[in-house]
Amino acid sequence: MSESSLESLRHEKSQKRSPRRWVRPIAIAGIVIASFYSSVCAALWFGQTRLVFSPVKEITTTPAEFNAKYEDVFIPVQNTDGKIENIHGWWLPNAKQVEQSNQGDRKAILYLHGKGKNISANAKHANRLMQLGFSVFIIDYRGYGKSEGGFPTESSVYTDAQTAWNYLIEKGYKPNQILIYGHSLGGAIAIDLALKHPDALGMIVDASFTSMSDMAQLDPKYRVFPIDLLIHQRFDSIAKVRSLAMPVLYIHGTADELIPSAMSQRLYDSTPTKKLIVLIPNAGHNNTASTNEPLYLNSIRSFFKL
Questions:
Q1: pLDDT grade, residue 94 (50/70/90)?
Q2: Which of 44, 121, 173, 256 has a CB 3.0–4.6 Å from the CB of 168, allowing a cystine?
């Protein structure tokens, strides 16, 4: 056998006996993947509130643009450090209620908006609800609009909703004169508030979701991560609605591409008290009322016997 043939044979045997040459690249790749995975998990944990909340400070619209009278309201609330911060809101008094001598007949809506922008984006709808015969109190959570404070959290928005409730009580409204309204993320905040005040007039949950965990599962890119372990802004409405004691009206658009209407159906199915679900054909996430205003408003009138 020639020298070159022997050398070739030795090389071939060397290759067969040296699987270690693949070990290092595989190990490095594994380390890189594990590091990336851990980094994303850390980002999801520490940056979670930035995914949940999208506050905007600038007020661009007021109820005056829709010919509604309103008052600016600032309510003090204490933060976790003991510092006093002001929550900003609008009070839209219903003209007929102002004229009523019998205060027992008056009613108010506590309006809790969704994750994006601020009360500016909700001025028109607040006026629409006021036309039903309610006075309306709509607030910005701390970190939104003119409300003071840092970036919001699940805990802080629950406190802000409770502070707004207390304001209406101090204003002379009884719990059974207050209708809680929440849109999208505000629906989850409304459900939490409703658990604390089962004697409220009722609640409207507009285009909301079952839980933040369920919302995360809708996005394929999050399915490879241990979402239930990573989520700390839980907004677990599906667990909470099982303990509701007041009448609840669920409203959702059938063409909602952000939160599927099936989530409102699940909330409805899990609610043990008087309830109704109204699906607005062809309505998206932010236009349930404007898509079919007669159906939207008549559903509220009928369900709450206005």
A1: very high
A2: 173
The pair of structure tokens assigned to 99 is 């004229």
Geometric angle at alpha carbon 95, from 92 and 96, rounded to 5°: 130
Are 90 and 119 within 8 A, CB to CB?
A: yes
> Is there a contact between 122 and 111 (Cβ–Cβ < 8 Å)?
yes
SS3 106: coil
pLDDT at 45 over 70: no
Q: Which tokens belong to 245?
A: 């004691």
Compute the distance between CA of residue 143 and CA of residue 77 in angstroms, rounded to an integer: 13
Amino acid at 33: I
| CATH number of 55-303, picked from 3.40.50.620, 3.40.630.30, 3.40.50.1820, 3.90.1010.10 | 3.40.50.1820
Quote the distance between the C-alpha of residue 284 and its chain's center: 16
- Taking the domains of the chain in order of start, what are their residue ranges? 3-45, 55-303
Prediction pTM value: 0.86
pLDDT at site 218: 83
**The amino acid at 80:** T
Q: What is the pLDDT of residues 113-169, one digit of tens each?
A: 999 999 999 999 999 999 999 999 999 999 999 999 999 999 999 999 999 999 999
CA distance 206 to 197: 19
Integer Cα distance of 239 and 184 in angstroms? 17
Does the structure show a pLDDT above 90 at 175? yes
Looking only at the bridges linking them, the beta strands covering 84-92 and 116-117 are unpaired
Whole-angstrom distance, CA of residue 195 vs CA of residue 200: 10
Q: Flag the least confident range among 16-25, 49-58, 162-171, 231-240.
A: 16-25
pLDDT at residue number 184: 98
How far is residue 114's CA from residue 96's CA, in Å, rounded to a whole number? Answer: 29
- Bridge partners of 218, per DSSP, are none
CB 283 within 8 A of CB 291: yes
